[in-house]
Amino acid sequence: MTHPDIIDPAAHAEWRPDKMGKSTLFESARLLVGLNAFEPGQAHALHAHHGMDKLYYVLEGRGLFLLQGAERPMKAGDLLVAPEGVPHGVRNDSDGRLLVLAVLAPGPAAH
Question: Cis (ω within 30 of 0) for the bond into 108?
Answer without folding.
Answer: no
